[in-house]
Give the backbone structure.
Amino acid sequence: MRGELMAILMTGTLAMAGPVFAATENPFGLVYANAIKENLPGKTQIHPVNYDLNGIKIAANVYTPPAYKAEGSFPAVVAAHPNGGVKEQVAGEYAQKLADAGYIAITADAAFQGASGGESRHTDKPYYRTEDIHGMIDYFSKYPDVDKSRIGALGICGGGGYTLNAAKSDKRLKAAATLSMFNSGKVRRDGFMESQVNSIQERLKNASEAREKHVNGGPIELTGNVDFDSLTVEKIAQIPTDLYREGMMYYGRTHRHPNSTFAYTTESLMNLIPWDANDQIELINAPLLMMAGDKADTLYMTEEAYGNATGAKSRELFLIPGATHIQTYYVPEYVDQAIGKLKEFYGKNL
């Protein structure tokens, strides 16, 4: 399916309808509705920060709640963005809304991606994506106004799979939640909805060859690189799955950001294909909330992980009626339901 998808996407001119949130129109580069444009007293505020993680400079945004004051003590949430996403999109929207509810929230661009440092660019390996979450927790462990005994996590899409992985070992997390969880290893291995199970060895061979070329001075090979400027509405409409069709609209037009890309290094597949968010998921013993739209074609990944997370202190599967995967990112009625559930979950467990 991925090959068919790429063939559909690589032609045409983008001319899609719908709201557009331009990064250039927001001083913080935010591309979601009702994003902060200036820090005002008594309101939720945003604070761009940088910190070092394993020798890589990480770019992040910290959101502080309206009641924030120095020398306070606040619960906190670390938010991990989707594959291909950046902190200014859905992760930022949820972080801002959680700050509105009284939490200090942080969302960071993954290492090698977005505004964060790291070479080779677009590296997408489970180890580093999991370290990104540990790194946000590290940052909050030094943040003077965060109650270190009340830190939770929210992982969205691919960030959800990596949040599950982080929660297996990082007991600083007192509660873990996912939204529209995407198990990157499972999909890179088997294909979306198991559409590539017959080509696993071929793709591993290609990844190995890409690494061989790289270490011998050749160019870095990318997979999934989409030129958003070369899409037509007609071509997008031909994409057979809601995830990729609506994803092209979200990332390519309505919530487009210059740092956001679907591309990842082909050699990353050597690390992604053998990995699975379900491996030893029973190590999670914190309270767990997994949310997804009941119309999402990715729902099977959330259901599988939820069923396997038998070690969680408590666990809940929360389905959002009528929502697809991408719609949980931005459609107000679905976002409001997810935020309402998160407030209930964190309120009980943080």
Summary: The longest strand covers residues 146-156. The chain has one domain: 2-349. The beta strands are 45-53, 56-64, 74-80, 104-108, 146-156, 173-179, 222-223, 264-265, 288-293, 315-320.
